[in-house]
Amino acid sequence: MDLTVWRTFVTVCRLGSLSAAAAELHHTQSAVSRQIAGLERQLGVSLIERHARGVRPTAAGEVFRGHALATLNEADRAVRAVREVHDGAADRLLAIGAPPSLAAGLVPEAVRSLLELTGPARWSLRPGLSAALHHRVVTGDLDIAVVTDAPPGLPHDPRVDRRFLGLDDMVVVLPVGHARAGSGPVPIQDLADLTWVEDNDGSAALLRQHAARAGAAARIDLNAADLPGKLALVATGHAIALIPGVLTGALRTDVTTVSLVDPPTRGLYTVAPRRDPHPSAALLHDRLAAAFGALRTT
Q: What is the mean pLDDT of residues 43-52?
């Protein structure tokens, strides 16, 4: 089968629209429709179905999409590898994934240290949540990702090499001037009745579990779309929040933190593909471990 058609199908699924896929791929909509119809004839099943706002994959189409995406990523990696051999180049882009809390400080510091060791190199940083980042490593979209085992946890996948970085203590972020600022380790019972804000299910689950162990229930009354929105609600006095300790050094100046008694923790790991690993992936893991160790001692 022609991989060009596979790429068209994956693009249609990602965008949910034949016309949008045609525009991105610089085809006509009728050409995209013909490609999808031809693929469906070859496979003997319907791959997409129309709905009010566009198209979506059928059950069979969703199964095929996952395999097609993995195949396309592997094909792209093969082309890059051949070109690198032909050119004699070591200038292979290092694609790094990280959750927002780690992309804000730890990963940039580790990359700075890596580049001091290796010299200039091409790299990119792509944020996301741990489950999505893990999937992107598996499919070949990322060369390495820093992930956490915060709920719902990490899958055991033989296709990736997972290496432990350390345990990160969660802390509470407060507006500057809060009565609890600077008061040292605080029992969660003393804060549970205040208004809390969360921006993702993993952090909210850690907070609820920690409070439940102490016989309390945290009032998560506000939800933010992302980490900056969460910190903005704290800074303006609307709520307090649970955040990773690794983020403390990169916080805005109008918030502060307080530690918890027996705080909840999350494990930090790197994941990288076992097949065709990037030459710098292991070095970056070492730099990340060193940067995290330095943060833990400050």
A: 92
